[in-house]
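Weekly puzzle thread! Below is a chain. First person to post its structure in token form gets bragging rights.
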Amino acid sequence: RKLTEGCQSVDICGPPAGENMNCIFQCISSACFDEIYAPEPLEDGEIDLKRERLFVKCTKRQEYEKYKRKRMKDLPQ
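Winning reply:
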């Protein structure tokens, strides 16, 4: 949610909220956007809950991988 608000609040995707979800999803994670939405982008105002769940899962996986890398880096050797 914070990432979505950040992408809407800066002048990246701009208002109106919810009408340019392709831009917002790409702002949140270009890798997950390319995997989930790039083959068939959303139309303005379209809601696709199945792909949205896949996108959220993808971003969580990315965050977890980032956390694991940081943790491995911070471990004493």
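Puzzle host: Confirmed. Bonus trivia for everyone else. The mean pLDDT is 84.
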